[in-house]
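Forum > Structural Biology > Help requests

Title: Can anyone predict the 3D structure of Na+-dependent transporters of the SNF family?

Hi all, first post here. I have the sequence for Na+-dependent transporters of the SNF family but no way to get a structure on my laptop. I'd be grateful if someone could post the structure tokens.
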Amino acid sequence: MAPREQWTSKLGFILAAAGSAIGLGAIWKFPYMAGTNGGSIFVLLFIISTIAIGLPILLAEFVIGRMGQADAFTIFQRLGKNKMWPAIAWLGFAFGFIVLSFYSVVGGWILSYLARALTGQLTSQNHGELFSSITSNPIEVLLAQFVFMFLTVWIVQGGIKAGIERASRWMMPLLFIFFIILAIRSLTLEGAMEGVRFLFIPDWSLLTGSTFLLALGQAFFSLSVGVTAMMTYASYLPKDERLGQSAVSVSVLNIFISILAGLVIFPAVFALGGSPAEGPGLIFVILPAIFEQMPFGSIFMILFFILMLFATLTSAIALLEIVISTGIRTRYDRRRRASWVFGTLIFIIGFPSALSFGLMSDVSIFGGTFFDFADLITSRIGMPIGALFISLFAGFVLTNQQTIDELKVHPFIHTTWKFLVRFVVPAAIIVIFAAWIIEISL
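Reply #1:
Sure, ran it for you. Structure tokens for Na+-dependent transporters of the SNF family below:
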């Protein structure tokens, strides 16, 4: 039997874990949520929530994963005190499968836009009509989704060292560099400071309970916790790595990229007369129009969609790794074949999501498209439930001595973290979940 791989360095692990967290949620959803929920107030609450709620859950996944040194199912089977805990792994497997099935559709859209940007086909366009024509074209969306899934599988089938770690070492630094270049260009536009003020100067009249709940939810989901992705990545860590430092690094990078995304988008939107509350249009409709008005705009447009592709790929890689790790369990020699088999199945299951804006646009599930339904059952149901049980497992099933041995931190830090994962984090998840139930029932 082939031996189980490990990360070759702490940096490789941090970059891969950060890549899992930093996807469309940080680059698209964070600016959109901030734009519609008070700007700087939302940003402040997001930062607080990431540190107080997201970081403890992330560290819980790191502790469980590194302690178990196996796939999520085997970890819960070994460490759990009854047979219910391995069900968390199957939840992560199922929801990772579903998330990637529609996430790959968005990855395909980005590839379509990148191809047009490279060939100069995004200039002098009605971008709203272009977006509709792309997403409603069944041949184009399925072909683009196939290419995106092929890239994802090709990286993951190479394993931890040759595949995931090598790709992350290239993609994440390039992502940071591209973001900084775009932020500098956006900040140099005339009128850009209005966007900066929107992002950083609080209007306390906009502070509401709803804003806090939305910021808490954004922090929770942007760190990619709840589907055992971070647990799976941490299971490849050697025992001498300090988990606390890694968790803090990933959380800080997530906050940094989210704010940097705001600095790319809001100054440009305000400077060129756009609206910060455009939702998906910020990327696919508003930003291409903005780039057209910039000197060297076609170059910046290409850079932006390359950046988006990198960000989406790093998250897709983590999602596929959940499926592969749980699917093969201890049979590591089956990674390559399993990667292609599961990747193909995910691609096929993603057909309804890909066709939700064209051939299947009339199909309604709970008032939305199949794409909306897949997003709903994972982000609003699957991930909160998974994170709740992971938090309870780390807080009540693992003994103090076990977590002390894994964390190797000052007793006060350990006691604080244990209190958070036992009581504060579960309460926050339940509040978010209950608030959503109340919202849809009214």
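The mean pLDDT is 85. Residues 86-118 form the longest helix (33 residues).
Shout if anything looks off.
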